Amino acid sequence: MTQFRAIDPNVEVSGAAVLSVIEGMTRCSDRDLMESFRRMATRILTKNGIDSPRKEKWYSQQAWLNAFREISEEIGPATLRMIGEKIPETALWPPEITTIKEGLASIDVAYHMNHRGGEIGHYRFEETHQTGWKSGKVVCDNPYPCAFDHGIVKATARRFAPKNKAPIVTHDDSRPCRQKGADSCTYQVLW
């Protein structure tokens, strides 16, 4: 599965998730810079057919992926990671989730809550065992960019981590990667 290319051309993404692009690109303390990023995000979304996104509307997933590609090329993958980090704050999410394992396992549920209209791929969580740590892995087999998924996994782990625990999320470089043409990326999570 190639990043930036929808599996099914009929898939739509929720406006709540689309708004994460604007929120993710405006995470800085400098007011002028923040406004510049907001204008850039709005321009890129509009150029790709998403004009004035609203939380309650649905938009073409391919248009959103095209915007991600442009953001990656113009600004860089770090911005895609910041956008991914906003998803757990802005997208629809199952309300009963309280633990980090439940949170990581629910990424796929939240993902499906924010998409409709066809095949979209998955986020698969599996608990693993590492000496001295609680751990798991998340395999992402979907059309989103690697850096974006890294941000989603990282923010989800932080959101549901036990108090006084700072989870560590790393890309598993020993596994396939969509940046290199593979069908999935894998992230290791320690807490």
Write up this protein:
The chain has 191 residues and is of the alpha+beta class. The chain has six helices and seven strands, in the order E-H-H-E-H-H-H-E-E-E-H-E-E. The strands form two sheets. The protein has a four-stranded antiparallel beta sheet with strand order 4-5-7-6, covered by helices on one side. A three-stranded antiparallel beta sheet has the order 2-1-3. The chain is globular, with a radius of gyration of 16 Å.
As residue ranges, the low-confidence spans are none
* Tally of individual helices: 6
- Proportion in β-strands: 15-25%
Give the spatial strand order of the biggest sheet: 4-5-7-6
CATH homolog superfamily of the largest domain: H-NOX domain
Helix content: 40-55%
Radius of gyration: 16 Å
CATH architecture of the largest domain: Alpha-Beta Complex
Described by the principal axes of the CA atoms, the overall outline is: globular
CATH class of the largest domain: Alpha Beta
Brief overview, please?
The protein folds into two domains: 12-90, no CATH class; 100-190, H-NOX domain.
What structural keywords apply?
191 residues; alpha+beta; H-NOX domain; 2 domains; 19% strand; 3-stranded antiparallel sheet; 4-stranded antiparallel sheet; single chain
Would you spell out the secondary-structure blueprint of this structure?
Elements: E1 12-14, H1 15-25, H2 31-47, E2 58-60, H3 61-74, H4 77-90, H5 100-113, E3 115-116, E4 122-130, E5 133-141, H6 146-160, E6 168-171, E7 185-190
Antiparallel strand pairs: 1-2, 1-3, 4-5, 5-7, 6-7
Helix pairs in contact: 1-2, 1-4, 2-3, 3-4, 4-6, 5-6
